[in-house]
Specification:
The chain contains 13 helices and two strands. The chain is mainly α and about 280 residues long. The chain has a two-stranded antiparallel sheet with strand order 1-2.
C-alpha cells in the first residue's frame, strides 16, 4: 500500500501543473479565515460576518465544510489530469510492464483519493478549531466538539466526488473532455431534477426520493447550505412571512448512498481498465 501511494504522490509532485493546483487548493482553503474580515457599513446597512456568528461553535463545522467543499474542483482537476497523463505519457503501460497489476493500479489511485480527502478534512478541522476559538462566543468542550458529523460528511463527499472524477478520467482519457463530461452530467442531473420536481411530481416528495440517489445529487445532499440557519436570516424570513423548513442534519442514509457510488465508481474504473487494450 505504502509503495503504491508513494508512486502516485511522486507522479503528482513531479508534474508542475498538478503540484501548483494542489498547493493552490490548500492555500484557498486557508483563505476561509479571511471571511472574518468581511465588513460592510453603508448607511443603515451593516454587515459583519464574524459578528453574525458564522464562526461560532458548533455552527462553524457546518459553515466551513460547506464552503470548503466548493473548492474540491481544484483537486478534481488534479485527479482527472493524473489519469489523463497516464495515457499521454505512457506511464500506465510502463507500470504494467514493470509488474504492477491493473488491480494494484486502481488501488494506488484510490489510495490517492483517500489521502486527498483525509488531508483536506484534517486541514478543515484544524482551521475550524483555530477560527472557532478565536471568534466563537461558546468554547465549552461539549459545544466545540458537537456536530462533528459535518466533517464526516465532508470526507465522504470528497471521496465520492474524487472517485467519480477518477472514473471519468479513465473513461474519457483526456482531462478537458473528462471535466466537460462532469459539467454535462451535472446539467443532466439538474434538468432531470427540475422535470421530476416541477412537472412529474409537483405536489409530493417523490422527486426528492428519486433524486437522492443521483450521484452528484446525493453528494450535494450530504451538506445542506448553512446560511439560512443564521439567526439574522431566520429573522428576515420571519418578517417577510417565509417559513424555513429545511433539514440541515447529516443523514446516515445519504452517507451510505455516496459510499455506494464511490464503490461503484472504483469498480467501474477497474472493469473498464481490465477490458481495455492498453
Amino acid at each position: 500500500m505504502k509503495r503504491l501511494l508513494s508512486i502516485e504522490l511522486q507522479k503528482i509532485w513531479m508534474n508542475k501543473a498538478s503540484r501548483i493546483l494542489t498547493l493552490t487548493y490548500f492555500i484557498l482553503l486557508s483563505f476561509i479565515a479571511l471571511i472574518a474580515s468581511i465588513k460592510f457599513d453603508i448607511g443603515f446597512f451593516k454587515l459583519d460576518l464574524a459578528e453574525m456568528g458564522i464562526f461560532n461553535f458548533p455552527f462553524i463545522w457546518h459553515f466551513n465544510t460547506y464552503v470548503a467543499a466548493w473548492l474540491k474542483f481544484f483537486l478534481a482537476i488534479v485527479i482527472v489530469s493524473m489519469m489523463a497523463n497516464e495515457y499521454s505519457y505512457g506511464t500506465l503501460k510502463q507500470n504494467l510492464i514493470d509488474g504492477m497489476s491493473k488491480k494494484e493500479f486502481i488501488i494506488s489511485k484510490f489510495l490517492t483519493v483517500l489521502l486527498f480527502a483525509i488531508v483536506s478534512t484534517l486541514f478543515v478541522f484544524i482551521m475550524s478549531l483555530i477560527l472557532g476559538y478565536s471568534f466563537s462566543s461558546y468554547t465549552e468542550t461539549s459545544i466545540v466538539f458537537s456536530d462533528l458529523e459535518y466533517l464526516v460528511a465532508f470526507f465522504v463527499k470528497l471521496v465520492g466526488f474524487f472517485s467519480f472524477c477518477l472514473f471519468l478520467g479513465i473513461l474519457v482519457k483526456r482531462s478537458a473532455f473528462a471535466l466537460g463530461f462532469l459539467l454535462v452530467w451535472s446539467i443532466i442531473e439538474g434538468i432531470a431534477t427540475g422535470i421530476l420536481t416541477f412537472k412529474i411530481f409537483p405536489n409530493s416528495n417523490t422527486a426528492d426520493s428519486i433524486t437522492q440517489f443521483f450521484p452528484l445529487g446525493s453528494m450535494s445532499n450530504l451538506i445542506i447550505e448553512p446560511f439560512t440557519r443564521l439567526s439574522v436570516i431566520k429573522n428576515i424570513g420571519t418578517q417577510i412571512g417565509v417559513e424555513n423548513i429545511k433539514d440541515y442534519n447529516v443523514h446516515f442514509s445519504t452517507i451510505l448512498i455516496v459510499l455506494a457510488w464511490s464503490f461503484l465508481f472504483m469498480l467501474f474504473s477497474y472493469r473498464l481498465l481490465k477490458k481495455r487494450d492498453l
